[in-house]
């Protein structure tokens, strides 16, 4: 897609200095700019590049005054960094502006959908499912029976959404994610074998949630696994049955949350964290990467380590641990001396 400097300035509310008709079709760093690309200058340490860049258009602050000739077309705005971010968002919206039902897609009997549906090839929507307006479902995705998906939600390629799942408005589910698979429930027999415990609950995902690629969210044994509004999940996270994650909590990659744990609002959880089952994690909790959480955490806690300690306690303890060999030598010398 090509767009002119004049059109960009209109989107950003900026002023064109140079050729308003010049067109761009790609984005670049200012130091790597090529003809037909758009870049921005916000950090003063990169100012020299505006005189040499081959980018066709560069977004700059209104306060920028060149001290030599600038060959590229500039768009002057109040804040170049924020304007470039706004343009990225606009570009992404245009790129994802698809509609229509492609060949080999299947919509089962009783399923209904709103306006401007995009359903990619080899995707499937099960019986009695309800799909909202402006929903985008990319190729090779599976939507089971009785699923509800709200308006403006994007389901990327290869996603599997099992029956009875409910997904809200303005959500993004990235490729390869599985929502609503069975929770890990087995009852042991006397002979050492196991009987599967039926998992008859569902998953509820509220509005404005983003779920990274390859993440798995299990259905509840009874009731619901719940992801509250505004939650952001990274790639390759495991959320077990009957877990509840509070509003606007952010969780990094490769974290695993065992069954029936409740996580509060506005928590920040690092990568490769392990959280055992049936815990209550309070609001505004910070859990450092690679921590193992084995007990309940109060509101506003910050923990680290395995098992997780208070963050300040962990740092103090680690300062001793890294010198443990030297401390042991000192103890041996003291034992010999006394």
Automatic annotation (TrEMBL):
GO molecular function annotations of the record: N-acyltransferase activity; UDP-3-O-[(3R)-3-hydroxyacyl]-glucosamine N-acyltransferase activity
InterPro entries: Hexapep, LpxD, Trimer_LpxA-like_sf, UDP_GlcNAc_AcTrfase_non-rep
Name of the top EC class for this enzyme: transferase
Keywords: Acyltransferase, Lipid A biosynthesis, Lipid biosynthesis, Lipid metabolism, Repeat, Transferase
A biological process from GO: lipid A biosynthetic process
Residues in UDP-3-O-[3-hydroxymyristoyl] glucosamine N-acyltransferase non-repeat region domain copies: 22-89
The protein's Enzyme Commission number: 2.3.1.191
Single GO cellular component term: membrane
Active site: 241 (proton acceptor)
Keyword Transferase (UniProt): yes
Catalysed transformations (reactions): a UDP-3-O-[(3R)-3-hydroxyacyl]-alpha-D-glucosamine + a (3R)-hydroxyacyl-[ACP] = a UDP-2-N,3-O-bis[(3R)-3-hydroxyacyl]-alpha-D-glucosamine + holo-[ACP] + H(+)
Pathway(s) per entry: Bacterial outer membrane biogenesis; LPS lipid A biosynthesis
Gene3D superfamilies for this protein: Hexapeptide repeat proteins, MurE/MurF, N-terminal domain
Function according to Swiss-Prot or TrEMBL: Catalyzes the N-acylation of UDP-3-O-acylglucosamine using 3-hydroxyacyl-ACP as the acyl donor. Is involved in the biosynthesis of lipid A, a phosphorylated glycolipid that anchors the lipopolysaccharide to the outer membrane of the cell.
Subunit structure: Homotrimer.
Family: Belongs to the transferase hexapeptide repeat family. LpxD subfamily.
Designated name of the protein: UDP-3-O-acylglucosamine N-acyltransferase
